[in-house]
Design brief:
Radius of gyration: 20 Å
Number of helices: 9
Strand content: 15-25%
Strand order of the largest sheet: 3-2-1-4-8
Structural class: alpha/beta
Helix content: 25-40%
């Protein structure tokens, strides 16, 4: 059976899969990145994990994987196949595509940014399926975005497309690690909500999930913290949809796990802010933590079958 290898490398863990032609995961495995052993060990761990998947594919399906795709965090030069920088993993300018190709017997390898790769899966086979233009925004430790156009995800001229977490929504506000003040991710990421709720309660261990539960029970302090985050998020999203005019806006990440506690006020906050703009569908992500692996598999298949798989919405 023809299949590809898909790898999703995170800051602390990685997932690897064998993926079929229709995006299905035929086999999924997980392990730690081992980043405490240094960047070289992380790279070797990725290569070894991929080689194990190749061997498993030969044993199970009688043939090696036809291609591979890998999603990594940080700054990614997709055209050259280089993982340029990842603070969490400690690497710079790792020629990951070439290294993986060599370890996997010369098969073609695609390298992608983790958020854009997850967005590709959500847009093509997940919550945005059928939309010709979508925006995928995961709300986690930070906030990033993936801009989907015609079944592909736009990386930009320099690999920075979609970084909506650094839209300034509160000028002169909280200092962001990027050097600006008032960035969206300082107010509306899961990490920001956790920090605000911990400060409001005096409980250093309180997090965004606790805040969402308190909102659902009507706690006024939680409602205030949540409203501030939703308002900031709506401000950033309206800026993005004004520029991009997506048909579907897909929200994922830890904060989206609050369900309608997030989506009901968010849809209303965005609706209040739009004037001439067309209001997109605002929907939760559908693929969970397998989105990165699924997207990496799609990147690999695109090397073999470079066709537009999107059914364009009308």
């Amino acid at each position: 059976m023809r299949h590809v290898i898909a790898l999703d490398v995170g800051g602390t863990g990685m997932k690897a899969a064998l993926a079929g032609a229709n995006g299905e995961l035929l086999h999924l495995a997980r392990r730690a990145t081992g980043r405490e052993r240094g960047p070289d060990a992380v790279v070797e761990g990725i290569l070894g994990f991929a080689a194990e998947l190749r061997a498993y594919g030969i044993e199970r399906f009688g043939e090696p994987a036809a291609a591979a795709g890998v999603a990594v965090p940080g700054i990614v030069d997709e055209e050259r196949g280089v993982a340029a920088y990842a603070a969490n993993l400690g690497w710079r300018d790792v020629p990951l595509r070439a290294l993986l190709g060599e370890r996997l017997g010369g098969v073609p390898v695609a390298l992608g940014h983790d958020v854009r790769t997850g967005g590709l899966a959500e847009g093509r086979i997940g919550a945005g399926k059928g939309a010709d233009r979508f925006l995928f925004v995961p709300l986690g430790t930070g906030i990033a975005g993936a801009i989907g156009i015609g079944g592909r995800v736009e990386s930009g001229a320099h690999g920075f497309a979609g970084e909506i977490g650094h839209i300034v929504v509160r000028p002169g506000g909280a200092l962001c690690p990027c050097g600006q003040r008032g960035c969206l991710e300082r107010y509306a990421s899961a990490a920001a909500v956790s920090q605000a709720w911990a400060a409001a309660t005096g409980d250093a261990g309180a997090d965004a999930a606790d805040c969402a539960k308190a909102v659902a029970s009507g706690d006024p302090k939680a409602v205030r913290v949540w409203r501030d985050a939703v308002d900031a998020l709506a401000d950033g999203l309206v800026t993005a949809l004004t520029l991009l005019d997506p048909r579907t806006l897909i929200i994922g990440g830890g904060l989206a796990e609050a369900g309608e506690t997030l989506f009901t006020p968010l849809r209303e906050a965005v609706r209040r802010r739009v004037t001439f703009q067309k209001l997109p569908s605002i929907v939760p992500a559908a693929l969970g933590d397998t989105a990165g692996c699924l997207g990496a598999g799609l990147l690999a298949w695109d090397l073999l079958e470079p066709t537009d798989r999107t059914e364009v919405a009308t």
